[in-house]
Target: Major facilitator superfamily domain-containing protein 4B-like
Amino acid sequence: MKYLLGFAVIAAVLPGFWCACKTIEELDQCAYEISFLANRNIKVPTNDGEVIGMCDNAKKGLKCLADHARECAKGALKSITIKVMNDLENHLHTRCDNPAERAEFLKHVGCFSDSSKADPIRLCADKHMVMMEKVSNFPKPLRLGGACCSSHALRECAINHITNLCSGETGDYFNDMISDIAEENIELVCKEYSSLEKCDAKYDPATWGDLKAIMASEDAAITGQHQYKTIGITSNTLWAALVDLSKIYQVSEETINYLATFSSLGYLIGSLSGIIYKWLNRQFVLICMVSLIALSMTFVPYYGSIYLLFAAITLNGIGGGSWDSSNNIWLVEMWPDKHASVMQSSQFMYGLGTIISPALISPYVSGNSTQMTPSERIKSLSLPFTVVGVIQICVPIILLILFFIRRYRKPGDCDNDEENNIEVINSNHISQFQSLRKFKLILVALLLGTYDAAELGYFYYSPTMLQHLSVEPSEAAHVLSVLSAAYTIGRLVTAFISLKLTPDIIMTYHFVIIIVAQTCLYFGRHNRTIIYITTVLLGYGFSAMWPAILAFTERHFKLSNRIGSLLFFFAGLATIFTPFLIAKYLETWPEVLFVFEGSYLLASIILFISVKLLLIFRP
Model:
């Protein structure tokens, strides 16, 4: 069990081990699955069963590395490597198969559950990876010493932080752990560089000074965090490139994730655009807003400053909010008798975009690789962002041409009636009937907001939750693809169903599907088959709800520009708080997502039932 912390020390002092047979990526994955310090996706165990699960993963990763050593290493290197791996394997079995040893490990590893303590410790591992990348480019005579001395620096950094942040007893425990596993083999491999004191005395001073400066730095931004990339929701090109953008703008991944907050803020502002259509032509406003989306997205790699990027994404969100709140009203006006089916079809096309955009950008992202400079990343991302921008700009160009040659006019020319209705609803002297109608509309807006928070919350955070439930990162991303595919296909199916069934009925059975799927997933969250089956059901369940709620509103209240703004404002307002409610708990309590989903879905169902009862008894 103690191998989990000590692995970085052993791996670093085996020059030439990472070559031949397996690719560097394959070996990296083997090591990453058992590197407790570097891998933030490994859940901190809280009971004996979880410790055993961690042990099983460690044994698989160790077997992968040992098989590579036996089959691919040669000569003296092979002998040393096999000895190291055999020692590690024996030690791992001893620690994992002994209940008392597992209990002792569980006692001390609990400190890592507190992110304020774990993050500085794990930063040591991040800095060590930067040091090792640097060492790999040194001249051959300097590589062995660089690897050995960097590993000593890692040990000192980690143990000092554990001692200061956890306890002296825990620091001694992990220090003894490293000594038990690594000390003999380090003496064998490193020889004249077998301690920090010997590194100070014998290793090239200038080179050693550069390496020590990396470990001495407390700036997380200089480190390329050695973790797997998981794309959350795939609805926009931007989110597939977040890791690369953090490197381009030289900020932490935590900082770059605030893009979602600025996008949501912009969406809130844009959703209020319906109130200006009394004075401005809606078609012309949408031409400007979609152009804003296209232009702000095209130049994402080039803004130079993180603050300019935040501003651009806010503008992008304004365009998106304006489009969502206006486009659906437009569809209802053009197809008053078949608007439910048309909106489902429109959302199906949106779903296709969620599949195409990440596929377009994925060949050009580099993730956490430290081999790419910011300028190289900018050059790499320029093509996909430009392509996306060109595709998006086609829409406002077409709308602009139509604006001059065949300008859209609302059927029946009932703009005045719409505004009169709004004025009546907003009057200070409204009747009881009109007041009740306004109350119903607010309930529908809350319904859309709470439901949208549940849907987007699951898309954003389910991959992270699954990884903390011991699903491989690559498989978690695959599960998200299955969810997106079911979501897209479901909208196409519902486009035809909407021709026969009312949105009230569609919403009812889709709520049932979502609740049943979430319940089954909770109880079967450790079973791969159940995860995939419930993911398909969830994708289909989520697929129809958004357009169905809009169709429900049109059927009972008649959508208008201002009512549309009200609905989409509440939708954006509810989702803006999601990161603060979920994100910080996922690592230590991944099931928090089920609590969040259950709470918001329950609120959505209560609101839906309330509106239906009001429509029945107080029409």
In short: The two ends are 66 Å apart (CA to CA). The CA atoms of residues 72 and 268 lie 57 Å apart. DSSP finds 26 helices and no strands in the chain. The chain has two domains: 3-222, 237-617.
